């Protein structure tokens, strides 16, 4: 009887020990899982901080110590680099509207360049900061932008938001991508409520359609590389879809020479052909083909950017 009790006690203790060890192992695994997630999260945060640091360095080198709260265009064009890669990651669309009513380019009716794009918004619609940055100018201009906001971003860009009905930020205020910065309106030199949106590198205007795809509410790629083609103030802009391999590309490479270089670009819409686009733009089909190294039989796709 005594032996039977001891044997039962021994078996019970062994089962208890196995159960305890299993519980400890499970607790260890349970504690380890969040540690792994925390490590991954920490790595993600570190990568984001590093990226922001690199962007700030690039922007700081580009603009040096210049900071002006009064003038929109206050930079010397000689400061423009031969090439500059702009990081478009971490963006936020300035408006949820997909309706671009006026594109970048020369306006024959007004005999002047339209250095941004107009997006249809209604008075009171929220307008958002496109990237993290610092508000440089918040003013009113009766003969131009109306109520407008200028934001400088660490990636080197400055964005301009015009014809607002109301400002929601102040000069020198730090903002994050997606921060409400104003309300849509019809102020200044405007014929109907809309957002006038500009993207600039120093004083140099870049067609926003080469960076932002309003119809798809997305950017055109992870990076956009600006090139300055010397002489007669002629510039060329090349958009590029970026993958992880592009992260290490050499920004100092000069672009290949093109036989025709213009400041006009057109984004192909669904159902359009080279012939219909040429007619729409008021140019010959041959000129459109030569500007884009195409033939009249070349295929085009929606979203493709054409020079003209």
Secondary-structure blueprint:
Elements: H1 2-63, E1 83-87, E2 100-102, E3 105-107, E4 112-114, E5 117-119, E6 126-128, E7 133-141, E8 146-152, E9 157-164, E10 166-167, E11 174-175, E12 180-183, E13 195-201, E14 204-206, E15 212-213, E16 218-219, E17 223-228, E18 235-240, E19 265-267, H2 274-281, H3 285-291, E20 305-307
Antiparallel strand pairs: 1-17, 2-5, 3-4, 5-13, 6-12, 7-8, 7-11, 8-9, 9-13, 10-12, 13-14, 15-16, 17-18, 19-20
Helix pairs in contact: 2-3
Describe the structure.
The chain has 308 residues and is of the alpha+beta class. It is built from three helices and 20 strands. The strands form six sheets. Strands 2, 5, 7, 8, 9, 11, 13 and 14 form an eight-stranded antiparallel beta sheet that branches. The protein is globular, with a radius of gyration of 28 Å. About 11% of the residues have low confidence.
């Amino acid at each position: 009887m005594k032996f039977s009790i001891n044997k039962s006690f021994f078996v019970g203790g062994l089962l208890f020990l196995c159960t305890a060890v299993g519980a400890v192992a499970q607790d260890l695994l349970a504690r380890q899982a969040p540690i792994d997630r925390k490590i991954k999260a920490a790595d993600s945060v570190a990568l984001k901080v590093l990226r922001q640091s690199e962007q700030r360095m690039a922007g700081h080198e580009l603009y040096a110590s210049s900071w002006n709260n009064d003038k929109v265009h206050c930079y010397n064009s000689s400061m423009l680099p031969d090439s500059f890669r702009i990081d478009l990651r971490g963006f936020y669309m300035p408006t949820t509207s997909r309706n671009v009513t006026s594109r970048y380019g020369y306006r024959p009716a007004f005999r002047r360049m339209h250095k941004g794009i107009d997006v249809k918004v209604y008075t009171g619609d929220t307008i958002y900061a496109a990237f993290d940055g610092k508000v440089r100018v918040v003013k009113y201009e009766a003969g131009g932008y109306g109520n407008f906001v200028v934001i400088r971003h660490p990636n080197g860009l400055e964005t301009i938001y015009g014809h607002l009905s109301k400002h929601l930020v102040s000069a020198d205020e730090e903002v994050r991508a997606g921060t409400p910065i104003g309300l849509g309106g019809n102020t200044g030199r405007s014929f109907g409520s809309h957002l006038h949106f500009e993207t600039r590198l120093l004083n140099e205007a870049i067609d926003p359609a080469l960076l932002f795809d309003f119809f798809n509410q997305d950017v055109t790629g992870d990076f956009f590389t600006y090139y300055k083609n010397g002489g007669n103030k002629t510039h060329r802009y090349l958009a590029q879809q970026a993958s992880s391999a592009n992260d290490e590309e050499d920004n100092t490479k000069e672009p290949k020479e093109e036989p025709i270089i213009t400041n006009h670009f057109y984004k192909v819409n669904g159902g359009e052909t080279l012939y219909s686009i040429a007619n729409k733009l008021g140019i010959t089909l041959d000129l459109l083909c030569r500007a884009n190294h195409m033939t009249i039989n070349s295929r085009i796709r929606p979203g493709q950017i054409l020079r003209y």
